[in-house]
Design brief:
Layout: H1 2-11, H2 29-35, E1 41-46, E2 51-58, E3 73-77, H3 96-102, E4 106-109, E5 120-121, H4 136-155, E6 160-165, H5 167-178, H6 180-183, E7 186-192, H7 205-209, H8 213-220, E8 224-225, H9 230-238, H10 246-257, H11 269-275, E9 280-281, H12 282-294, H13 305-312, E10 329-334, H14 342-351, E11 355-361, H15 368-371, H16 375-395
Parallel strand pairs: 3-4, 3-6, 6-7, 7-10, 10-11
Antiparallel strand pairs: 1-2, 2-4, 2-5, 8-9
Helix pairs in contact: 4-5, 9-11
Length: about 400
């Protein structure tokens, strides 16, 4: 690998067509928000099991007042291997975080444990195996309640609107189906490219699901999965700013969520690929692979009846029953999505008891919901319209 990088590092100088680098590619979330002239706040919250999460906030837009005015809260939760930066990676007129702030909302951005901005713990080191012993189970059980408590403390608001993408939706469904206190705190659950059962799955992740456990551990270990390291930065900052590598970089993104027509802003690709993957745990990806094999939306299987008894007081992992999700839910999904397949979403919709909106976008893949050029017209405008309708109806 070192020799390969050395060779590429010298060879890429031959390809002189270099795009201007976007400054945000080297920024953290707080800096990205401030770069566009928006007010930015940053907090740390400690979960019940000791993880310290960084939470970002855009309290209001550039033209609609000050922090002294109480505004409805919208909380955005990113997907697997992403971070809060995914909501602000495009220009302000096509980034959901900025659009919501300009529409009059108090916007909070979560960073899941293990992502690049949430790698602290009260007593565990990220170098230890114990630090990475989590999946979206713990994000639903510990992270989301802690974040909701922080928001309540800072805003004095009991309830929030929740917007999730990919794993962000799985966190919500898991929490809302098992924790009545979380259900009481969420007004509407907006789910983009929702993840629950994974029977209609396509693409490279199926290969991982079929790997023998020994080989999987040999390849990926038992700690972090796809970290945001020097190789990610090299690809995002150096290679993908050169037109020679356009096709390679485009396909890196499309391979994740579905091969279809390029639908993102290619001038922002250095931001996409320097900020992502943002990292998670090997246990987290194994939880998703477990769902593929078991064909059930369920808690993590700890590998033996004895260990499951220790965690769940039963020999098998309990299912997450989405028929218990009574919070009003709005769903957007894509026909070209390799991860959140249409058949899986339709099965999810048949179980949810309170669906207030559903829309299939035929040309969308998995990542189009956060980065697509036309995300405002197909998704974000609808979310804002629903929010505005609800907020305006309260004033009548």
């Amino acid at each position: 690998m070192a020799c390969f990088l050395h060779t590429i590092g010298n060879a890429h100088c031959w390809f002189a067509e270099v795009r201007p680098e976007n400054p945000e590619a080297r920024m953290d979330v707080n800096q990205m928000i401030s770069y566009w002239g928006y007010p930015s706040e940053e907090y740390e919250v400690t979960t019940q099991d000791g993880y310290i999460l960084k939470i970002n906030r855009i309290p209001y837009g550039k033209t609609n007042g000050s922090c002294s005015v109480s505004r409805p809260v919208v909380f955005l939760q990113h997907g697997f291997l992403m971070a809060a930066s995914c909501w602000i990676s495009n220009l302000p007129n096509n980034s959901l975080g900025f659009l919501l702030a300009d529409a009059g909302y108090d916007v909070w951005l979560g960073n899941s444990r293990g992502s690049i901005w949430s790698r602290k713990h009260l007593y565990l080191s990220p170098d230890s195996k114990e630090f990475w012993s989590f999946s979206y189970d713990e994000m639903a059980k510990y992270d989301l309640p802690a974040i909701l408590d922080l928001i309540k403390e800072k805003t004095q608001q009991e309830k929030v609107y929740y917007v999730g993408h990919s794993q962000g939706t799985a966190i919500a469904f898991a929490a809302l189906s098992t924790n009545p206190k979380v259900s009481e705190r969420i007004k509407i659950n907006f789910a983009m490219a929702p993840i629950s059962i994974l029977n209609d799955l396509h693409g490279p992740i199926l290969f991982l699901a079929k790997l023998p456990e020994t080989l999987f551990k040999l390849l990926f270990g038992e700690k972090e999965f796809l970290s945001n390291n020097f190789l990610v930065h090299f690809i995002g900052w150096d290679l993908c700013n050169r037109e020679f590598f356009d096709t390679i970089c485009d396909n890196l993104l499309l391979a994740i969520g579905g091969f279809n027509t390029i639908n993102f802003n290619k001038s922002r690709i250095d931001i996409y690929l320097s900020q992502n993957p943002a990292g998670s745990s090997v246990q987290d990806i194994r939880h998703f692979l477990q769902t593929i094999n078991s064909k059930r939306f369920e808690a993590y299987d700890w590998g033996s009846p004895a260990l499951n008894m220790k965690h769940y007081n039963q020999p098998t992992p309990p299912p997450y029953d989405t028929s218990k999700v009574e919070v009003p839910t709005a769903i957007w999904f894509g026909e070209k999505d390799l991860l959140s397949g249409s058949k899986d979403v339709e099965q999810l919709l048949s179980k949810l008891p309170n669906v207030i909106n559903q829309r299939l976008i035929r040309h969308y893949n998995h990542i189009d919901f956060v980065w697509a050029n036309d995300a405002y017209s197909h998704v974000y405008s609808e979310i804002i319209a629903i929010l505005n309708h609800l907020e305006n109806s309260k004033k009548i």
